[in-house]
Amino acid sequence: MTNVDIESVSEKDAIKSPEKFNVDVNVGEQAKLGGLNGFLAKLASRGGVELRGANPVPYEERTVTQYLNIFSLWFCMSCNPLPITFGMVGTLSFGLGLRDSALIILFFTLISTIPVAYLSTWGPRTGMRQLVLARFAFGKYLVSIIILLNLATLTGFCVVDSVIGGQALSAVMDGETINATVGIVIIALLSLLISFCGFKVLHIYERFAWIPALVAIIIATGCGGKHLSNQVEVPPATAQVVLSFGGLVASFMLPWAALASDFSTYMHPKAPPFRIALYTYMGLALPTILLMILGAAIGGATPNIPSWTAGYESNSASGILAAMMHPAGGFGRFVTVILAFSMLGNLSATMYSITLNFQMFLPFLFRIPRAIYSVIITAIVIGVAIEAAKSFFVNLENFIGVIGYWSAAFIGVVVVEHLVFRRSSFNAYTEDENAWDDAKKLPLGSAAIGAAVLSFGLIVPGMSQIWFTGTIAEKTGDIGFEFALVVSALLYLPLRYVERKMSGR
């Protein structure tokens, strides 16, 4: 593929010969959009915006060999107050002690990160985004159900990120200069800039942004560290509470599996799978474990520290972090600002995946440039986040407690499809370069949807949420995600055999 001057080529030529452009295989379609496409194409020609979107990346364009980028991206996504906030839930909401919370976080994170690391290795081998790959199990049209669930999940994470960042900015001056609403808008708009540009800019940003974030977290820990030993006395943990909080931790990790390959599709096809998996695993698990445990320690001490309690009541988790920094004066406020902006690493990457999901939701949406969806999702996130901030921790628990169920069912289906029916061969996805977009060459998807839906026959009685506790969960605690993963995989085997026999594909 050769570089050309986009401005010197007519839209008619672009439609006839999109291969001339060093920007996107979709330029021909996007040229039909007129001036907007021309503007984006100019930005893309200068390396500023990724136009490809959710279309598979051809073999010859998978050229990135800086495999450590995948580590820095996941590390940056996880090195911020988000895991700290979730860790606080264990001690503040579930009433667990620090030791029990730490052990639960360690065990469930180590286990639930494995699917994310494994699926991330599929990107270099196929050049396909994760939910494009899901078409090979769920079909071209029924996969839209999974995409809709993933859109809701990722949007929820964006809302949480925006609230944490916005409340951190508000907490800098106790809401006197910037209130939480203004803070949310600022954080969301800054993330829009990164997600709008796409893969290249995102990876460059994530490569370095974790450094000030890590330094700020270390400083905050140092300022408030003397109080962390002042933990609230709690009764011994019960098995029900252990499994319920463990399910919450798993629900934090498992949804990343639905976008794991989104960040590795431009990497070289011969990228060592073990290195990609290891970098993903360490980049995601290491900061999550350490920061969640830190959050559990902070949550356990908060009721005993009046200033932390006041911060929690005014700005939730971000208010506690700001209160920890108050003894450092103006420097502490500066560090709190850095903590707020550290949310951009997770928020911008998540918004990037949302733009791809919007394109994949319905086939005709591929015609709209990926970058446009970043504007749409920013508007949605700002509106929802402002409302969600009013009862942050309640909304947080309700959201994260549910998303793990469908994510686990999704993992069970796609892994069985790959290991059993595709015999672990990536040629099954790429030997026909048009198969990913041809409904006649893809499964019907009825077996995949059927397995996922039927698994809820055990998921529902195994659920333990604030608003509902199933009959099994009353005795065991929340084991819904375990049921989702195992039952969906077991059901998919016979259902897929029947589907193949009846449809021939």
Automatic annotation (TrEMBL):
Query: What's its membrane topology?
Result: Multi-pass membrane protein
Where does the source fall among the domains of life? Eukaryota
Task: Please list the GO terms describing molecular function.
Answer: transmembrane transporter activity
Q: What does UniProt give as GO cellular component?
A: plasma membrane
InterPro entries to which the protein is assigned, alphabetical:
Pur-cyt_permease, Pur-cyt_permease_Fcy2/21/22
Tell me where it resides: Membrane
The family annotation for this protein states: Belongs to the purine-cytosine permease (2.A.39) family.
PANTHER family documented for this protein:
PURINE-CYTOSINE PERMEASE FCY2-RELATED, PURINE-CYTOSINE PERMEASE FCY21
Name of the protein in question: Permease for cytosine/purines, uracil, thiamine, allantoin-domain-containing protein
